[in-house]
Amino acid sequence: MTFTPGTVAEIAEVLDRAELDGVQISKLTTWFPRMDLDDAYAVQRAVRWRKQTRGYRVAGFRLASLREIAVGDLAYGVLYESSLCPNGAGINWLELLQPRIEPALTIITNVPLRGAECTVEDVLGAIDSVMPAFDVMDCRYRGWNADSCSVIADNCSIGRVVLGQMRCPIGRFDPRAELLVTRNGKTFGRTTIGATLRDLASSIVALTQFLDHFGDEVPAGSVVLRGGITEPVSAVEHDRFTAVFHGLGPVEMRFVSFARQPASRATVTVRER
Fold it and tell me: Domain range spanning residue 181?
């Protein structure tokens, strides 16, 4: 780790304010080229602390491969209750900067998962159900020009998560099931789900073991999202998306426009310590 506590707090404030004000910034490594993954997660946790002091409640986690920036390592961000949306939701376009959309699977847990000794069998025993979802990613960095450390600090580009209506018991989950995705009524993606429950469970094991370093856990009732079924697509205002997961049901969302009031007008700046 290269950051001092003061630098972590300062960058966390920059990212938090950028989201509140709806402004884009340069990737963090522009100012901090020696930034490493420990620094990135320290900033993410500091932003989480700022949000929780304002009443945000953690609902789960997003697991990401970061393939959109050509990084293969698994990373995670925190899902807040405020980012979860019901099926058919109208997402306010003006609250996001440059959204990208992809269908995803969500795991709902029914017991806590904790400890460095967590196994795939532990996770499989903790899965209550599987749900379809849309992963609405957003990014504070101009033109999605970012690297792994910058993305992780920015909570792995979490924007919104739209959950489907159906909860599928794990015994009925079929990774060979077909997925059909439409945009404004036109099909643009057809594939199979691909990921098996053991694949998903392995990712959650890695998450649980990582969280253990910080004395954290995956609580019972957590929503754990994993995308990567299709390539993400950039959205435009008033787009409508539908994904039909055979056996899991549909999930639908649309973008609408309501005026937003920025939380503050302060200029976003970063100073290297």
Answer: 59-256
